[in-house]
Description:
This protein is α+β, with helices and mostly antiparallel strands. The chain has two domains: 6-26 and 80-169, Beta Barrel (Ku70, Chain: A, Domain 2), CATH 2.40.290.10; 188-314, no CATH class. Helices cover 32% and strands 22% of the residues. The strands form two sheets. Strands 1-2-6-9-8-7-5 form a seven-stranded mixed β-barrel. A two-stranded antiparallel ribbon has the order 3-4. The longest helix is centred in the last third of the chain and has 20 residues, at 295-314. 13% of the residues are buried.
Amino acid sequence: MARAVWNGALTFGLVSLPVQLFAATDSHTIRFRQLQRGTSDRVRNKRVNERTGDEVPLDEIVKGVDAGDEYVIVEPEELEDIAPGRSRELEITGFVDLEDVEPVFFDKTYYLGPKSEQYEKVYALLEKALERSGKAGIATFVMRNREYLVAVKAEAGILTLHTLHWADEIRDPHTEIDHLPGRIKLADRELKMAEQLIDSLSMEWDPQEFHDTFQEKVQDLVEAKKKGETVEKSEQPARATNVVDLMDALRASVDRAKSTKGGKRGSASLDSLTKAELYDLAADADIPGRSSMNREELVAALSRAGARSHAAQAS
């Protein structure tokens, strides 16, 4: 079983439910080690006193806040003393419609579970009530010396907790982004063609269809370098579409989307794909040696894989 990252009581009204908080996601990022070039020697970071240059043991390190002319030292127990609810209460202050919480506010997801079997009924009651109402409970709590704003909601028969950004953490796009479009007049035919393209590329949301292709390419690179082989470089990013070619680009995009709709990709439609798209298909088909193939070789390998698949289905 996974280890809980937080234990406490979820409260709503006069009801108190002891719960445990569990991480809901993992990261499969490839972790690189720091080495000295030309050797296999690891490079490690040290905690060093910047005045003396001496290494400082971990148990001698404390937290301090820069107060201008001096540092104010804050001990862990002092943070615990001022934490609301002493870091052990998750108090729901109210319930809101889920659709009212804008996506930009959502940060990280956790699973909530009852602390023990005797609290399962209260847990199930809150989960079912949230599911029927379509609402989320808004709460605050303290974890690891930091206060969080969170939304508690029902998902697939369990309670989930989503940490939210505070309102003053959300940046104003109009001050962050240059060249945002103002009142631009759009041609009806361009707008209709763009809507047609969106309709042609519409699909059912299935997260299982997506995977980390960059991680796969890094692994292929590592394997190739171990064997002394080279890896084909990726294609350059697509050039920006200018206003003059916009209608032609939209029309060609609609035609290509229609030709690949439903996942039916013959050799003709393969020819219209970019090398990056071909590589993704080759990864899905588990074609060996794909990382060293050029565009034409990828098309040929995918065509052969498709022919074998059709032959196997026919038999």
